[in-house]
Amino acid sequence: MKICCIGAGYVGGPTMAMIAEKCPNIEVCVVDINQERIDAWNSEKLPIYEPGLDALVAKSRGKNLFFSTEVDQNIKESEIIFISVNTPTKEYGSGLGQAADLRFVESCARRISEISEDNKIIVEKSTVPVRTAEMVQSILKSTSKGLHHQVVSNPEFLAEGTAVQDLLCPDRVLIGGEDSTEGNVAVGKIAEIYAKWVSKDRIITTNLWSSELSKLTANAFLAQRISSINAISALCEETEANVDEVAAAIGADSRIGSKFLKSSIGFGGSCFQKDILNLCYLCRYFRLPEVAKYWEQVIVINEYQKERFVTRILDSMYNTVSAKKIAILGFAFKKDTNDARESPAIGICKRLLEEKAELAIYDPQVPKESVLSSMGLTEDTAESIVFCETAPEACCHSHCILILTEWEEFRNLDYESIYKKMKKPAIFFDGRNLLDLNELRSIGFIAKGIGKA
Ligand code: UDX
Ligand code: UDX
Fold it and tell me: Which of 62, 115, 415, 452 has an alpha carbon 20 to 30 Å from 123's alpha carbon atom?
């Protein structure tokens, strides 16, 4: 059997690498219109950083795992086609700033329809609004040449930074299909692939719409927990309650659970904000404004948390950071990824630049180009930013250190000697609950971590 995946991104690449490793009898080809990305997948330096991914790709690449820009040929030859292209928030026209931009999904559907010479199973891997499969089906029907393709929804729940582990041991695999004999056959074929390494009781099958909506709902619930604990962190700071203690105390209740209760400078990443905006847009479209308003508040609190962090920095630095060197440790939206999409670091750095601070940025994996482009800057317009090769270099002679990503290496820095090389009075902000702040206090830091006393 041959399968292909359109979109060699953070989702398509790792997912297909896992399928290739677990199903040696299936030929897996990941195709993408971006030549540079495909070249990187075929090189020693993969385009995305994920622990364990290099080894996983190395096991199958060139055997039953291929990366190519030959989109049409691979569509033609494959029995199953995964669509894993990006579905960003719309930046134009109707639904601006809220709805998902489905033009890439639509163009994939058109291409598949034009190119195919036999019946295909088309799998929506991209996160899409509920009822997108209807649009895909109608495109396929309009130019079907008498063929009967099946559309299946199989959203991906992996989190970046733990993608390989999440793919290897998923909590569940969700597969939604059309309620018909052909639909059941198609769902069965996709389930068979995962059953090679995932136990059957973890493979959930539903109708198409439940599957599409479950993905948006899962992300909305996860983000909601973060906004909930971040909202409580503001109250903790006013009342001398400790948000970590509160999180541990409530998380011990098995009905609440301990995960996703870490107070932070706000959630980032390509999914949470986009998917909640999309959920709100859908609610308004279906005339449910109260439901839309309920979920919108998750984003409102996320923005509030980031702004609160900037305000605390300014408050602690006599209300001015002008010409002060601020060390930024970490720019990725979370540890163990080179992805800076929607990272809280973007807004925080932009605000500090507006306040005329000098930034010294260090991240172990995010390239300088991504940092600049995420802030809408170029080398020429970024004269107040220095990119550093190490964390101590970024911290040297700084007035303040901001840890914006919880990379493990920041735990083990020699803060005592870093502190000696800082401007006095030095201020340290730990936005991610990374370090034992008492320890930092004892060596002289004025610690003002968000969510901390
Ligand atoms: C994925 C999903 O697709 C998205 O809906 C979900 O919410 C998050 O995960 P991701 O893998 O992170 O997105 O996206 P990205 O890394 O941007 O990769 C998408 C790839 O698709 C890009 O390499 C892009 O070049 C490619 N693409 C896009 C095509 O090959 N063809 C197109 O028509 C459009
Ligand atoms: C998320 C979902 O977890 C995953 O299931 C889905 O497929 C894609 O979206 P991802 O965005 O890759 O995954 O990472 P995640 O671990 O969920 O973290 C998202 C953001 O939330 C990060 O900025 C992280 O720092 C933040 N976060 C997470 C918190 O602030 N506190 C927490 O307790 C957990």
Answer: 62
CA 267 to centroid of ligand 2, rounded, Å: 7
- In order, the DSSP letters of 7-61 are --STTHHHHHHHHHHH-TTSEEEEE-S-HHHHHHHTSSS-SS--TTHHHHHHHHB
Per DSSP, the three-state class of 180 is coil
* CA-atom Rg of the chain in angstroms: 23
Across 218-230, average pLDDT: 97
The three-class DSSP label of residue 6 is strand
Say whether pLDDT at 450 is over 70. Answer: no
Residue 159 exposure: Cα atoms within 13 Å on the Cβ side: 15
H-helix or E-strand spanning residue 168: helix 163-168
Residue 262 Cα: closest atom of ligand 2: 33
d(CA 179, CA 208) in angstroms, rounded, equals 8
Q: Which residues contact 434 (CB under 8 A, 6 or more apart)?
A: 403, 406, 410, 411
**Containing H/E element for 358?**
strand 358-362
* Cα separation, 318 vs 320, whole angstroms: 6
How many beta carbons lie within 10 A of that of residue 62, not counting itself? 10
Reply yes or no on whether the pLDDT at 39 is more than 60: yes
Q: Which helix (H) or strand (E) holds 251?
A: helix 243-251
Confidence check: pLDDT of 19 > 70: yes
Based on DSSP, count helices (H) and strands (E) in the chain, helices before strands: 17, 14
Residue with CA closest to ligand 1 atom 17: 86
In this prediction, residues 280-290 reach a mean pLDDT of: 96
Catalytic residues: 271
Mutate to test the pocket of ligand 2, among 153, 222, 246, 270 (most ligand atoms within 8 A of CB): 222
Residue 449 scores a pLDDT above 50 = no
- Three-state DSSP class for residue 338: coil
Which residue, chain included where needed, has tokens 């109708």?
207
Residue nearest to atom 14 of ligand 2 (CA): 159
Length in residues, the chain: 453
Give this prediction's pTM: 0.94
418, containing H or E segment: helix 415-420
List of E strands, 32-140: 65-68, 80-83, 121-124
Handedness of CA 45, 48, 51, 53 (dihedral sign): negative
Provide the token pair at 231. Answer: 């909202």
Least confident of 13-17, 62-66, 110-114: 110-114
Chain centre distance of CA 73: 30
